[in-house]
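Bench notes, bay 3.
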Amino acid sequence: MVAKKREREAPAKDKLAAIGIEAICERVADCETLQSIADSAGVSKGTLIVWLDAYADQYARAREAQADKLAEDILAIADDGANDTYMTENGPATNHDVIARSRLRVDARKWLAGKMAPKKYGDKTTIAGDAENPLAILTMDQIAANPKSRLKV
C-alpha cells in the first residue's frame, strides 16, 4: 500500500517540479488560487500544499506579494467609476448594483490582505495607558477614575 502511494506522489511532484517553484510562486503572487494552480498542474491541492512546504521562504514571499497585489486591486476597483452611472431617457442614473458589487470586491480584498499581512494591512489596535507610559496596564480603578470612561466600579 505504501508503494502505491509513493508511485502516485512521485508523478505529482514531478509535475510540480516541471512547472517550477518560481512559476508557481508567480501565480500565487498574482492572486491565483491554490486550487486553480493544482488543477492546471494535474495534482491535488493537498499535494501542492505539501510540495510548497519544501519552499516555505519563497512561498511566504509570494504570499506577501499577493497581499500587495490585493491592495493595488483595491485602489483600481475604487478608482474605476466607469459603470457607476448609465443613461436613461430621463438622463444619467446611478447604477447601485455596480457600486454595491465594487464595495463587496473592495471589502473582500481588504479583509484578505489584512489577514495575509496584518502588520501592513490589518486594522490597528491601540491599548492606551497613561500619558507617561502608553503601554502601561491599568487597574479597573484607574480606568473608572478616567472622566471619559463609561465604566462604573
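Next record in the batch:
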Amino acid sequence: MALFTDGPVSCMEDLTAQDTQLENVASVEGIDVTQKLILAQEELALELETLLDAQKRAEPAVWLAPQATIRNVAVTRALKLWHTYRTLEMVYRDAYSDQLNDRYAAKRDQFQERANWAYERLLVLGIGIVWSPISRAREPLVVSASGSLASGTYYVAMAWTNSKGEEGGLSGVTTITTAPGSTLLVEPSTPPAGATGWNVYVGTDPGALAQQNGSPIAAGQTWLQPGTIAAGGAPGRGQAPNCLMSAPRMILRG
C-alpha cells in the first residue's frame, strides 16, 4: 500500500489492464492521460475530504480521538479501482466531447458506472487510515567513497520509517557506477514529518533491490555500503492501513 498523498494512485499499466484500447484512443484524440491521472486524483481528494469531514460530524462522541485527514488516507484496492475507473471515465468524456462518437459515450458511461461501483465498495469496506503517516521518500544522494565494493553499476533507493517501525513509500532509484577501490556513500533526503529513521535498498538490478541495513538508520546519518551487497528483504509497498474507517453514504455526481 501507499499513502494517497504520495502521488497518483494508478498508473498507465492499471488503466490499460481495464481498457486495452486506451493508448490508441489517447493518441488518436490527443488526450494527455498523465494529466487525467492527476485530475482524477484531485477530484478524489476533494471527495475523500468531504467523506472524512462528514464522518467527524456523524460521530461527535469521538471528538477527542485523533481526527483523520487526507494525509492519513492509505491506498486500498477499492480506492485504487475508484481512481482507475474515474481516470478512464475522464478520458472517454473528453474523447466524446471532441468527436461526439457514440462508442466513446458508451465507454464513458461504462467507466462512470464502474467508478460508482468502486466508490460503493470503498464505503462498504471503509477508508484505509494510517495514524502515523510518512510521506514517500525522495531519491537519496549517492556518491563514490573509498571502499572495497566490486566495481560496476548499482541502483539505490530508500524509504523512511517512523517510531513504530512502519515504512513509508520507496523513493525513486538512483543509479551510480563505481570504480575499483570504492563503494557507495548514501545520504538520505530531507526527512518528512514523523520520520525517525530510514532503510536503504541496493542492487545490481533496479527490479531486484535488497535492504542493506539490519535496523533503521537514524534520520540524520549516512550509509556507507560494505564490500558486499546483502541479500536482504525486498522493498515494501508503503504503509498498510492501521484501521478501516467507516464513512457516511453520500451520493456521487452523475
